Amino acid sequence: MIRSIPLLIIILLGCTHDGASQSDAGAWPICSSVPQEFVAEVQRTLTDSTDLFRGAYPPATPLTCELLSMLQEELKNDSSRYCFDRLSRRYWGEDPHARLTHTYIARHLNFALAMAATAHWNEDHRILGSIELMDYRRMRPMVCGTKEGYARLEQQDRAAVRYLISVLETTPIFIIGSENATIHDTYIRTVMRTLDTFTGQQHDVTGDQRLRVDMSEDRLRKAIAEWRSWLTP
What is the reported pTM? Predict the structure, then answer.
């Protein structure tokens, strides 16, 4: 059963917003597959306790246990660990765009780090992470592998689709604002395009102007059901 989809427009004007920060967003999971200390470390890296943008964007959906497990394995690599750490708020003043991290993701088609970026407190990074996931999926046919390797890739695909569906189910589709509303709209459309890329489906998510998400609640429910059906063998 599909959970209710939050389509209510949230008010983000001046002092009227509720000041919800990334740190008090949806609770991060308690996982049997990874130590809770690691979950807390990832949460600290990907959230912003200072609320730099003063609640201008909806909080990110926390990573799932299966994605956290994949990230934990990836961070055994020192280069991946370094690039992951650069996503932290403490590096914002030095490199707000985390260029080194995103260059590394693109060069190595790094699934786990791209997924981490999709859960970042800054929506610009979420957009980049989603685009990197699409690039990763498109390049996959060019990569040779073993039967076990392909099974791992399929596991990654399913984990990504499950997470991105949960993003649409827990994130407002529209927000009020100017630049922040445009960025958020780009984020939502990119998530939908990423789901289409992974599932091989195609959904028209914009209206005649091709600028904004243009989906009724019924159409969005249907699209989510179709994306979810891909998970069923």
Answer: 0.85
